[in-house]
């Protein structure tokens, strides 16, 4: 839903202007927007740049975390709500953890991180299985 709000696009394009679903189309744009802070390619052009860029960055970070391929890697909805309200740091959405880790962040997420080389730019594991 966040992607629909950000982009102004429907989840599935019945006119076939988008070859992929909204999620597939948006993934690389979300990564780029998070890296550069430039939302021009992603944001609904009808807004004509009339939005708070800090709030948009917050929405983009939440949307990106919410569409990770692995459901286990996605934050809980309560964590997204806290992040959107500004009650949690956006970095807390990107905590990658072992399921058995007992350290807990302010959002209730474990805090032990894997090496960033084990993940792609969307925060999903490169290899589905770990030895």
UniProtKB/TrEMBL annotation:
User: Molecular function terms in GO for this entry?
Assistant: ATP binding; protein serine/threonine kinase activity
Q: Does the keyword S-adenosyl-L-methionine apply?
A: no
Subcellular location per the Swiss-Prot or TrEMBL entry: Cell membrane
Residue numbers spanned by region Disordered: 101-131
Q: What is its main location?
A: membrane
Alphabetic keyword roster? ATP-binding, Cell membrane, Kinase, Membrane, Nucleotide-binding, Serine/threonine-protein kinase, Transferase, Transmembrane, Transmembrane helix
How is this protein situated with respect to the membrane?
Single-pass membrane protein
EC number from the UniProt entry: 2.7.11.1
Looking at the UniProt record for this protein, which Gene Ontology cellular component terms does it annotate, in alphabetical order? plasma membrane
Instruction: Describe the reaction catalysed, as an equation.
Output: L-seryl-[protein] + ATP = O-phospho-L-seryl-[protein] + ADP + H(+); L-threonyl-[protein] + ATP = O-phospho-L-threonyl-[protein] + ADP + H(+)
Name of this protein = non-specific serine/threonine protein kinase
UniProt organism field: Gossypium harknessii
């Amino acid at each position: 839903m966040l992607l629909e709000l950000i982009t102004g696009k429907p989840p599935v394009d019945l006119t076939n202007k988008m070859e992929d679903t909204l999620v597939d189309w948006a993934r690389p744009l979300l990564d780029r927007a998070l890296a550069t802070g430039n939302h021009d390619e992603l944001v609904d052009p009808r807004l004509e740049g009339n939005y708070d860029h800090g709030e948009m960055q917050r929405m983009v970070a939440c949307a990106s975390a919410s569409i990770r391929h692995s459901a286990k890697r996605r934050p809980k909805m309560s964590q997204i709500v806290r992040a959107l309200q500004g009650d949690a740091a956006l970095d807390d959405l990107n905590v990658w953890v072992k399921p058995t880790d007992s350290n807990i962040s302010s959002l209730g997420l474990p805090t032990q991180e894997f090496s960033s080389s084990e993940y792609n730019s969307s925060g999903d594991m490169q290899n589905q299985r770990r030895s």
